[in-house]
Automatic annotation (TrEMBL):
InterPro entries: DprA, DprA_WH, DrpA_SLOG, WH-like_DNA-bd_sf. One of its GO terms (biological process) is DNA-mediated transformation. Residues 321-374 form the DprA winged helix domain. This is DNA processing protein. Gene3D superfamilies: 3.40.50.450, Winged helix-like DNA-binding domain superfamily/Winged helix DNA-binding domain (1.10.10.10). It comes from the Bacteria. Belongs to the DprA/Smf family. Residues 87-294 form the Smf/DprA SLOG domain.
């Protein structure tokens, strides 16, 4: 595991850049994918922030887009500082290596605890909240042995399997991915466990603002973090249509190894894991199954740094806003069915830069819907 265990490369943001990044990601209609396209197009968050009003107007907005102010960004940074946390940008050395490359990776992560936990290869362990004694014991065994083998264990701080995995890897290093802000952990009964994680060899991470109470729709985003940070995911006891299966699906989409622990067909908690095995997941009956399968993957630096700002590039002289006829051609080409952006470029015959800029205009005004795999469609 020499390559991923070594100090990662990256560019450290200045405080001015960090504030601009925080403002941009906290502004209306700016998700991770839109953020990345804006940085890639304009070169810096500051330039992108200055362009938002014009982009919004050209995209057909009926009211001014809300842009997070410097005062709001400073307040959130101050809250993080008082909480003992900080924000890490996607191109910085302390950002989890594997997470950088997933579709829609968070531009900024709020983190608290030992950053060394994010610099080692990770294995995810998730499963039923209503875990059996045997399931919790096996999850702990996998977590303990993976930790001893040099892996950080990542999970979601939930009851049951997550809790067992975190507790078993407190000594070697564990990452808790939260659905709400770092100051709003869920469930409340695991607040003490979270304190143990962040006060020792572990780390808590979240892409949500401080003060954000987790809602049901926030947990799939949390699951993306688990699947993205880990090189492989172990599912122990998961019912059908459970959050653990969402995490497994995401892990598969990200090219991660997916493992499942077989269980009794009479136990509803095992229906999901048995289904994963039928669909091709790797069977796990001992921790060595996971460690041996991940060893070849963890030997190589598969995840180079990405998304660095380019402050010296003169974007104002390079960007020519597309005209109304070009915008109309793209809108006519789009519809409710998701399509690849390359297909839009080929269909319209427009330059890639013009297509991406018009898509950004539509996105910022809420008229574009982004799908997994980089597909786009017009919003209803």
């Amino acid at each position: 595991m020499d390559a991923l265990s070594a100090a990662p490369k990256g560019v450290v943001l200045t405080e001015r850049q960090r504030i601009a990044w925080l403002r941009l990601i906290r502004s209306d209609n700016i998700g991770p994918a839109t953020f990345r396209d804006l940085i890639n197009h304009f070169g810096s968050a500051e330039t992108a922030l200055a362009a938002l009003p014009e982009l919004s107007a050209r995209g057909g907005a009926t009211r001014a887009v809300r842009i997070a102010s410097e005062a709001e960004a400073h307040r959130e940074l101050e809250v993080a500082h008082r909480f003992g946390a900080r924000f890490v940008g996607i191109g910085e050395p302390d950002y989890p290596e594997a997470l950088k490359q997933i579709d829609g990776a968070p531009p900024l992560l709020a983190v608290k605890g030992a950053l060394t936990a994010a610099k080692r290869p990770a294995v995810g362990i998730v499963g039923s909240r209503n875990a059996s004694i045997a399931g919790a014991k096996f999850a702990a065994m996998v977590a303990r042995d993976c930790g001893r083998a040099g892996y950080t264990v990542v999970s979601g701080l939930a009851r049951g399997i997550d809790t067992a995995a975190h507790r078993a890897s407190l000594g070697t290093g564990t990452i808790a991915a939260l659905a709400g802000g770092l100051d709003q952990p869920y469930p409340p009964e695991n607040i003490g466990l979270l304190d143990e994680i962040t006060g020792g060899n572990g780390l808590a991470v979240s892409e949500m603002p401080f003060g954000w109470e987790p809602r049901a729709r926030d947990f799939p985003r949390r699951n993306r973090l688990i699947a993205g940070i880990a090189l492989g995911l172990v599912v122990v006891e998961a019912a059908e249509r459970s959050g653990s299966l969402i995490t497994a699906r995401l892990a598969g989409e990200f090219g991660r190894l997916v493992f499942a622990v077989p269980g009794s067909p009479l136990d509803p908690r095992c229906h999901g894991t048995n289904g994963l095995l039928k669909d091709g997941a790797s069977i796990v009956t001992a921790p060595a199954d996971v460690i041996e399968a991940l060893a070849p993957v963890a030997q190589f630096d598969l995840f180079p740094s990405s998304l660095a700002e380019e402050p010296t590039r003169d974007h104002k002289t390079m960007i020519v806003p597309p005209g109304d006829s070009e915008r109309a051609r793209i809108i006519d080409a789009l519809g409710p069915t998701p399509v690849e952006i390359d297909d839009v470029i080929r269909h319209t015959g427009l330059s890639a830069s013009a297509v991406y800029l018009i898509l950004l205009e539509l996105d910022i005004t809420g008229r574009l819907h982004r799908h997994q795999g980089g597909l786009v469609s017009l919003s209803n």
